[in-house]
Write a structure and sequence with these properties.
The chain has about 100 residues and is mostly helical. The protein folds into 2 domains: about 60 residues, no CATH class; about 30 residues, no CATH class. It is built from 7 helices and no strands. The N and C termini lie far apart (about 40 Å).
């Protein structure tokens, strides 16, 4: 089993998805794209992150298979402190847009 399958098996488990067809339809992609990703063991991290945010899944578990207590606020602060001013501004606007979108 490759890394792609490990990740998508965890996603399917958490979302009660039973087949690849259900998975790629849920993701809004065609079968060929999903098959190519699997064959090349290409991990679509942005899609996976979007699924985790939308479904409130633990990204750490989905990617690494390890469930662990994470202080997300502290981790976010660490990441923000590592950004330069321009990237910090971009992150702010993305976070603000996401917050407004969820209202």
């Amino acid at each position: 089993m490759n890394y792609f399958d490990e990740i998508f098996n965890r996603i399917k488990e958490k979302l009660n998805i039973n087949s690849d067809k259900e998975m790629y339809e849920y993701m809004g992609i065609i079968q060929g794209t999903f098959t190519n990703w699997r064959r090349r063991d290409k991990i679509p991290y942005e899609k996976i992150n979007s699924i985790c945010v939308k479904e409130n899944l633990d990204l750490n578990y989905i990617i690494n298979g390890k469930e662990k207590e994470i202080n997300y606020k502290d981790e976010n602060i660490k990441m923000i402190n590592e950004l330069d001013d321009e990237k910090s501004e971009i992150y702010y606007h993305k976070l603000k847009a996401n917050t407004l979108e969820s209202l």
